[in-house]
């Protein structure tokens, strides 16, 4: 038996109650699984602990933004922000 395994396609209970953080974490977790990468591998590349990555993936609070950005970079993603204001209000 080898020491490697494939990522499980398993969702867990959200660690927080902020819908945006939960959605962000879910997207990062799905990207990791789509790439076939384990949490430990991504965490090591990003320079964070596996438990921090787990917290991010489950929408937990209290994680420094630079750690979230490092995880995104390890997953070959770029963080961007979108204006969600109603454009008709700006007239």
Write the layout of secondary structure elements.
Layout: H1 19-34, H2 39-46, H3 50-57, H4 65-74
Fill in the CATH topology of the domain at 19-78.
Answer: 434 Repressor (Amino-terminal Domain)
Largest sheet: none
Strand segment count = 0
- Tell me, what's the shape? globular
- Secondary-structure element string: HHHH
Q: Which CATH first-tier class of the domain at 19-78 would you pick?
A: Mainly Alpha
CATH architecture term of the domain at 19-78: Orthogonal Bundle
Mean pLDDT: 87
Low-confidence stretches: none
Content-based structural category: mainly alpha
Helix content: 40-55%
- What is the CA-atom radius of gyration, in angstroms? 15 Å
Q: Determine the number of helices (DSSP H or I, runs of at least 4 residues).
A: 4
Any idea what the CATH superfamily of the domain at 19-78 is called? Answer: lambda repressor-like DNA-binding domains
The end-to-end span amounts to 65 Å
What proportion strand? under 5%
Please give a structural write-up.
With 91 residues, the chain is mainly α. It has a domain at 19-78: 434 Repressor (Amino-terminal Domain). The chain contains 4 helices and no strands. It has helices at 19-34, 39-46, 50-57, 65-74. Helix 2 (39-46) crosses helix 3 (50-57) and helix 2 packs across helix 4 (65-74). The model has no long low-confidence stretch (mean pLDDT 87). This is Helix-turn-helix transcriptional regulator. Pfam families: HTH_31. Residues 1-20 are annotated as: Disordered. Residues 28-82 form the HTH cro/C1-type domain. It comes from Corynebacterium suedekumii.
């Amino acid at each position: 038996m080898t020491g490697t395994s494939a990522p499980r396609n398993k969702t867990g209970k959200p660690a927080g109650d902020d819908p945006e953080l939960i959605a962000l974490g879910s997207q990062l977790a799905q990207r990791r699984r789509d790439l076939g990468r384990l949490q430990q591998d991504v965490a090591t590349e990003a320079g964070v602990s596996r438990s921090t990555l787990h917290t991010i993936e489950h929408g937990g609070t209290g994680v420094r933004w630079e750690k979230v950005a490092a995880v995104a970079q390890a997953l070959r993603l770029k963080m961007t922000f979108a204006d969600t204001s109603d454009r008709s209000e700006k007239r």
